[in-house]
Amino acid sequence: MSKTFVFPIYFLLMMCCVNFAKAQNDYATIHIMSKGMPSRIYMNDELVTGLNKDEALEYKIKSRGRITITGLMSYGRAEGAVEVKDGLDIYIVIYGTSFTNADLKRWEKEKKNFVSTVVLEESSSAPIVKNNKSSGPGQGTCFAISPNGYLITNYHCVENAKEVTVKGIDGDFTTKYGATVVASDPSNDLALLKIGNKNVKFETPMFGLRSSGVNQAEKVYALGFPAATAMGAEVKITEGIISSKSGVQGDVSKFQISAAVNHGNSGGPLIDEQGNLIGVIFAKSTIAESAGYAIKAGYLETFLKNVDGFEYPAFVNTIKDKSLTEKVAGWKSEIFIVESN
Q1: Which of 156, 144, 157 is nearest to 195 (CA)?
Q2: Which residue numbers are catalytic?
């Protein structure tokens, strides 16, 4: 997927390692500064941490290879890439829209303006660079939200895509349907898609949309297609609880959940025991075991109600009295694979 670099004026993204010296314990180090605004930091689309205003990150990493780093703020995003090689560390400073070579002296000068540094380490069980990562199309999950061919997924699954396709409709994973992005909310990582084929219709949503009243420790289920190429084209379901009613750095638009999520789960639904939609999966933690994140359904509701030309559906839960097996079977018929090139 091609990327367009957009850098808000107050955001500084810096990656720094020690040149020509092999890092201790086989670690390289990525230093990131968030200047002027709080931000959430992603590496290869995995949420690493949140940074407060004028706070720096020192991230020790064993992964090698090309790593895309994104800083997401309430009003925009900054993005760049670095090639981490064994025994060779890299200095890169990003100001505005340009990459600039830097050195340790320049880093130390900039660091004086920052109030604190967060020190984190890459988890060996969740490496930033996956050895089995495919070089093919980007893959995520989407689900039907309206009878007229509309689906929901994550913005990062389709961002700057030249082509978006959906497969799995009516259980057919060989036929791909072209889709367009009709609206997006990058700050909350949401995108509304529409199938181009007018003959494709979905059932009226069988689930309720629960936009409030979700409590800590409630049981939840994440559904989606993690690593579909390797794990197969069948919806996977994982069970967990609401670990926290806020995300990284107290982000109230997100839930932290214990249900396992992985690459490919992005854009899938998070449901409660009654089968209500309570969130949209968008990330997993790279520094904590069994920690994933979902955008709260209330933010999805606000997004959909503000899309011009979109008829907001009546969400009525018609499966609440069914068994869990029947609820999941109903949901599975509305969840698909989304791919982007």
Answers
A1: 144
A2: 156, 189, 266
